[in-house]
């Protein structure tokens, strides 16, 4: 049973297309993250689902109902914002009770719902306090509770953790995941932080320039990014991307870098590269798939060390290849210096190839 369906959803502000032809389906109980850089249309998409702004075109279904023209209050949704906006003069209990009192529910029903929600969120001991007597994380839990008491079909959350400090954010990340797990709730969660999306969501909808780029599980998006934008947006440090020419050398297909190095391709990568629309490609690789060598090696790509960042468990290095920065992770025991000449070995099974013109992932023709 699909809980939320967006069909060709469009929102224009004059000439600005904030959201363009976005379609995706959120199943009942799924946690979906809308993720992308600032200004890509995440909040607009969420507000369209909530009914806070009207659609320019398209259709939205929640549960079994087309809600495109319904008021927010008739959509069976609850929102949690970055700015939790608790009532400062009300106790936590009354902050939670207020949406129910507005709906004229009985005292007993309200009391039960508030206490149930407080239990789920582990804030029972805070019910008599006022917001100023709470930490940021506790306030955020009360904001979640206020959505929870309404027992909506769908929770909509817009960057609910971005006002918290880094440590609390990581803690609340697992609390919201737990909230989702315990309630089996349908959640649509907006974040600009790809790590939040990857760690929390069942599926992620990656947006860029108002367009949906890819909608899939974090694992699939990470393993098979559909284009260079998604490839570089998801994962940290970012996937390295090197523009190359597709060429032939000694009867085999190779990639040729701007400075003249060549990288012979495996059979399947050769078939992918041959599908390039303009004879150019972009070679992508994640930091953990690369091997560093101190001496030249056939098929390894020459570069120069730019910076070295030991983090304790792992050392990250930035290597300049042609004019591009290549991120690589190294065992902390490896000692390299800035400006040192190095060679990078790519893993043929884990490298990515994108079309030089369309930026789309190249597929091997059958
Ligand atoms: N009320 C508005 N009027 C005009 N342009 C808007 C309005 N709201 C959003 N936009 C534009 O739409 C685009 C998407 O905005 P938004 O959905 O807030 O992005 P995000 O939440 O991903 O940062 C941006 O270019 C923004 O400037
Ligand atoms: Mg936003």
UniProtKB/TrEMBL annotation:
SUPFAM superfamilies: MOP-like, P-loop containing nucleoside triphosphate hydrolases
Transmembrane segments: none
Presence of keyword ATP-binding: yes
PANTHER family: MALTODEXTRIN IMPORT ATP-BINDING PROTEIN MSMX, OSMOPROTECTIVE COMPOUNDS UPTAKE ATP-BINDING PROTEIN GGTA
GO MF annotations, alphabetized: ATP binding
Pfam families the UniProt entry points to: ABC_tran (PF00005), TOBE_2 (PF08402)
Gene3D superfamilies hit by this protein: 2.40.50.100, Nucleic acid-binding proteins, P-loop containing nucleotide triphosphate hydrolases
Protein's UniProt keywords contain Repeat: no
Family note: Belongs to the ABC transporter superfamily.
CDD domains per UniProt: ABC_MalK_N
ABC transporter domain residues: 4-234
Keywords annotated in UniProt: ATP-binding, Nucleotide-binding, Transport
Protein name: Sugar ABC transporter ATP-binding protein
